[in-house]
Every structure is written in C-alpha cells, then in structure tokens.
Amino acid sequence: MDSSDQTTFEVSNLRVVRNGNEILKSISFQAVPGELIGLLGPSGSGKSTLMRSLLGVQAITGGSARIMESAAGSSTLRGRLGYMAQSAAVYLDLTVEENIRYFAGVLVQPPSEVARVMDVVALTTFSRRLVSSLSGGEQARVSLGVALLGSPPVLILDEPTVGLDPILRRDLWRTFDGLAKTGVTVIVSSHVMDEAARCARLLLLRDGTLLFDGTPASLLAASKATSYDDAFERLIEGE
Amino acid sequence: MSLRRALLTSRRILEQLGHDPRTLALLLFVPTALVGLLAWSLTNDPGAFDLVGPKLLGVFPLIVMFLVTSVITLRERTVGTLERLFTLPLTKADFVAGYAIAFGVLALAQSVLVSVLSYTWYGLAHQGVPWRVSLVALCAGLLGTAFGLALSAVAHTEFQAVQFMPAFILPQLLLCGLVIPVSQLPSVLRAIADVLPMTAAVHAISPLQTNAYYVGQFAIMLTYILIALVVGGATLRRVTK
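The joint structure predicted for all components is written out below.
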C-alpha cells in the first residue's frame, strides 16, 4: 500500500442475523494498511462470520463494511483480498502445484508466482503430491499459499494456525508479521488466546459482541491480568 | 464471461478426473459396457438390439453425467472451494461454462466410444445415421451435466444428490418410449412425454423421420440444456443469507 492514511477496513455497526439468530451485534472498527490484527474469541463467537462479512460472502443485516473504500463484496475487491477459510477450501484431488496453478490462472498471475508462493509456504518439495495425501497442517499451507497469490494488500485468514506444530506456527506468525511490515493489512482469527501476543492489535469477540479493541499490552494493563486467558475471562466477568 | 477462465476451470476439472480413474472409468466405460451387455443378452432375438440399443445410447450418457456432475458440483459447494472462487474474479458464467466444456468433452468421448463399439463389435444395424446417433449421445451427456449442475443446488449432501436420480431420471425413463411406445401412453402422459428431454433424445435417434422432425427433437434438447445451465448458474450464490 502506498498511502498509510488510507483506511483498509471501515466497519460500522455491522449486524448479521442468520436463521433468526443474531450472530454479530453492532460491530465497529477501523484498520489501516500494515496492521497485524488478531481476531480472537471462543468458538461460536462470530469470528468466521465477521471475516466472511468483510469478504462479502456473508449477507449483512445492518450497518456497513467497507474495504479499501469499496463496499464489502464489491466486484472491484475480487482478487484483492487474500482469503484462507477454516477448511482448506482447495481441491483435495489435485496436486499442490495444480491447485496453486489453477487459482493463479484465475488471478492472471505468471508461472513465476506459482513457484514463489510454494516457496513461501514451504511446499515446493510437495508440489507433485495430491493434497488429499498431505497432513492437515500441510493442507492449511496450500490454502495459505492460494491466499498469498498475487500479493494482495489485504489478508483475511481464518484460524490459519490450527493443527500446526509450534515451530510451523511460529514461522507462519513471522510470515504474517513480515507481510504486515510491507504494508499488507493482515487479520488473523484464532481461538487460542496465547496467540494474542503475536499481534500488534487485538479484537476480542464473544457472542457476536466486540469486547476489546487495542494492543496486547493494553489488554493486560486494562484487565490487570498476567495472561491473555485471564484477561479474556476478566473482560467477560466485567461485562 | 471470460473464455480463458472457463477453459482454466475445464482444465482443472479434467485434471481432477485424471487423478480419479474410477470416476473416469464410470464415465467412459460403464455406458459402453451396459450397451454391450444388452447386445449380448439379446443375441437370441435377432433385430431386438437394433430396436432398443440406439435408444439406450440417448439414455445412459444422461444418467451417468447427471450423477457425476451433481456430486462433483455439490462437493465444490460444500468444501468451500466455490466460496473461495467467488472471492476471486471468476464469474458464475465462467464457472458454469467451465463445467459444461469439461463434461462436454467427456460426453463427446463417451458418445464416440459407445457409438463406435455399438456399430462395430456389438453389431448394431440401425437404419438411422451413425453421426446423428453420436450427436444425440453427446446432447444427452450435456443434458445430464446441465441438470446435475442445477440440481446440486437443492441437495445438501452427496447422498441426497444421488437420491435425486430416481426422482428426476426414472419418470423420464418410464415415459421416454423405452418401456412403452410414447404413442401408446394415455393422452395426458403422452403430452408430458413429448416435451421431456429424454423423450427427445430417444425420438432423435428413431429412423426414417423427416429432417424437420429431427431438428425439432434437437431443439427440445438444446432448450433444456440452456435452461438447466442458466438455472444452474442462478443457483450459485456469491453471498450466504
């Protein structure tokens, strides 16, 4: 991104009601280029729904979500948001290379981009393996590789570190941090509170409500807790 | 619509099938084997295969393509790849055209294989024109693909998709003239049968008709293919409610 004062996300009073249940209750926040945002909260708190709303694949009941000055779901955003869903959402019956090549083709990326991405997610040695033969963590890396194609200015990653070993998880967080430093806005969801320390900014969700928006240090300071788990519990108790 | 993205999608689908020899065998060889089985079973009834065999060339591709397309498309919806694709610059038309092209290629291969074997090894002596029989088999395969795409939207699981087959295919099978000639059906059923795509496939194979008659039958099939592709595209939702 070339303009640091440009807003990447501008979410205002966002509400999502699905099958009569209010999944998101008036969520508001903003983000600027280069932020590494952790979207944390327990399972069922609305993290995935919020991410899908930003992507424009989840219908919004009220409020608004604008990404890079376009309404969420706008056709101008297609291909500019790197997305990794909770499920791998890649073709299990294709090889790693065939998967990445197909999505790169849809994004009109050159063959060199396929090689670059496989290198970033450390899957070059698996390039000819069927995705179905890979472990869950390796499948997640294929999915992340697809999200990174074309170096999009925004990455929306839904629980990308679930099921990964600690070393790989550390390496991925380093990758996210490195991308943020180049101006990419990265929003990463997790239900593991320990991952809060790796983010520059936290959004804590519970039952569709945004409980906290700030830095990890300010979360600990405000809650007078020593761990992020404790901090989250105190926030809930203080609701 | 982007022809480039549609062709990329077709290539991807064909690559997927290339890694799945069982499905490929189901698509290419099962109709051929079934027609061969019929020819063998009618060995002692000279002329019977010449009467029934060509009709089956219009029926089997429709059934097989319907099954495979509905399951593969449903999988695309349920595993999240369709949602991911719709966050990218791929339109519904690109997606549907990609499927139609990929399965069209397979339907063509299937129709050529089954027709060539029928006219050679199985000894089919049909008064109709062989290329028209192959064309009907191709249209029937495309019909199955288009209906599979459309009906995959209604099913929530692969099991449900398979369950649609008896509900959707069997009534057509009973009314298309394979069991009882359409002309002998009660008037209401005859009126229904006359506008069903499988009946059109069977009629288009029947010999000794006028050119206008054949054009009419192909028009019925093409209309159904187009409608089903449009419905199939319309059921693909970019946004979840």
